[in-house]
Specification:
The chain is α+β, with helices and mostly antiparallel strands and 98 residues long. The protein has helices at 14-24, 71-97, and strands spanning 2-8, 34-44, 47-56, 61-68.
Length: 98
């Protein structure tokens, strides 16, 4: 899995990268299916926007955006939405193959 994290109007510190890595452990079940995962963290007054672009092995692409007043809250909510999306797509493929 290729992981890219970039910030717009903010510096992405090592602490934030470690926080994202820790949260991504929730997606360990699907690491073999995720081709690319790109995070864009943006500071917009008064809140933060966390966006993820996801490319899965079977050709599915998604863009997920979350707004929150706290950066870590935005990342946490984004990972939860990613988990839900990946499980949904994984279940579709698994059900289709059955």
């Amino acid at each position: 899995m290729e992981l890219e994290i970039k910030g717009v109007h903010l510096d992405v510190k090592d602490e934030t990268r470690e926080f994202i890595d820790a949260k991504l452990e929730k997606l360990d079940f699907a690491k073999e299916f995720i081709v690319d995962l790109h995070f864009t963290l943006t500071k917009e007054n008064p809140d933060f926007v966390a966006e993820a672009k996801l490319h899965l092995q079977w050709g599915h692409n998604s863009v997920i955006k979350v707004h929150a007043y706290d950066l870590h809250e935005a990342i946490h909510n984004l990972i939860d939405k990613l988990d839900h999306k990946i499980r949904k797509e994984h279940d579709k493929i698994t059900d289709h193959k059955s």
